[in-house]
Amino acid sequence: MAVQQMQGMTVDEIDRALEDGSRVRVYEYVLAFILVTFTKRSPAYVLRQGEQLNWKLGLRYNLISFLLGWWFVPPFGFINTVDAIKSNFEGGLDITDEVASEIKIFKMTQSNPGN
Fold first, then answer.
1. What pLDDT score was predicted for residue 55?
2. Number of Cβ atoms within 10 Å of the Cβ of 44
3. Which among 19, 21, 70, 61 has a CA at the least distance from the CA of 43?
4. C-alpha distances in angstroms, 82 versus 1, 15, 24, 100?
5. Cα-flanking dihedrals φ and ψ of residue 27, to 5°?
6. Distance from C-alpha of 20 to C-alpha of 94, rounded to nearest angstrom
7. For the chain, which ranges sit under pLDDT 50?
């Protein structure tokens, strides 16, 4: 599979992938327990340039949300679950810009360690 998790990639490899047009995506899932609800994110996936959005990657997170996301007394568990499932079917959340900004900050701090 051409899609891979960012885990195991160096900062330079991620930076090169982004320069080559890759996109970074995450998938959301919801956990709700009567009076508390959590919206979590999957590990980040790098989609190489030219790859189609892969909604199938989000299926496991949709399953988690579908089974565990509804169980909050006010309607927020339901609302958050529907939002997460919809987002995952659309290919997840694009966090490419955030990752690129973090890489830029990381490289700046590495080049100026005394500042």
1. 72
2. 21
3. 61
4. 28, 33, 22, 29
5. -120, 145
6. 16
7. 1-3
Range of the structural domain that residue 36 is part of: 4-111
CB atoms near residue 32 (< 10 Å)? 21
Residue 52's identity, in one-letter code, is Q
Q: Is 90 helix (H, G, I), strand (E, B) or coil?
A: coil
Taking the C-alpha atoms of residue 107 and residue 14, their distance in angstroms, rounded to an integer, is: 12
Output the six-digit token pair for 111.
Answer: 């080049």
Query: Tens digit of pLDDT for each residue in 44-69?
Result: 888 888 777 777 788 999 999 999 99
Q: What is the pTM of this model?
A: 0.81
Number of domains in the chain: 1
